[in-house]
Amino acid sequence: LLNYHGAYKPTGISRTWPNFVTREAVYALEQSKAKPFPNCEHNVMLPFTRMLAGPMDYTPGAFDLDGIPVLTKMVQGTRAAQLAMYVVYLSPLKMLADYSEIYENSAEDFQFIKDVPVTWDETKVVDGYPGDFIVMARKKASSWFLGAMSDEKPRSMTIKLDFLDGGKSYKASIYKDGPTSSVDREDVAVEHKTLTAKDSLKIKLAPGGGLAVSFVPID
Questions:
Q1: In 141-182, which ranges are E strands?
Q2: Which is nearest to 146 in space by CA: 126, 120, 168?
């Protein structure tokens, strides 16, 4: 399996060589090693631009957002937004950008990354505007996953769940910006509830915030 980095954007190569699964070809998270970029506006522009060309390895998964003394707070946005990237950004080979101990010490948040698939059967753009925000739902087998991301502005929104299959109830595991996430960007609030296609989610996204939800049907 091949994952190209530092490469040009996809041009249909996977039709000829299906062992090509993803590539970088994007101004992505590794750039934050040297400067506070990519910013949150850039991150919510990508679903409307680069991602249209094919699989995109942004190398998401930054959990330690305090940084190290030389590179303080270079990764932009919240941890919940990093979780949302695993739904919003299509890449059949998912990367984990941070060090193993931070995931071991954040087991509840890391559970979403363990649960989220790498390929999808169906995709729906629920809402969004280039450079402002994105809300995307993807389905794998009988389960749905939702990802939402915002630019540097805090947002309140109501997300209708009518993309879910009618007549079914789902166990929803919700990972959202916590009450202090505008200051402590690692703050993620996790809750579990039963929801259906008739329900809606009322959420508040912090500056650079995010939301990640898994919907598993209840038998």
A1: 143-150, 155-160, 170-177
A2: 126
Whether the CA torsion 165, 168, 171, 172 is positive or negative: it is positive
Identify whether the C-beta of residue 81 lies closer than 8 Å to the C-beta of residue 208.
yes
* Each residue's pLDDT tens digit, 52-82: 999 999 999 999 997 655 555 689 999 999 9
Joined together, the tokens standing for residue 155 give 């947002």
Helix (H) or strand (E) segment spanning residue 80:
helix 79-88
| Structural contact between residues 121 and 141, judged by C-beta atoms closer than 8 angstroms | yes
Q: Which helix (H) or strand (E) holds 118?
A: none
- Kindly report the length of the chain: 219
CA distance 148 to 131: 13
pTM: 0.96
Known catalytic residues are 30
d(CA 26, CA 58): 7
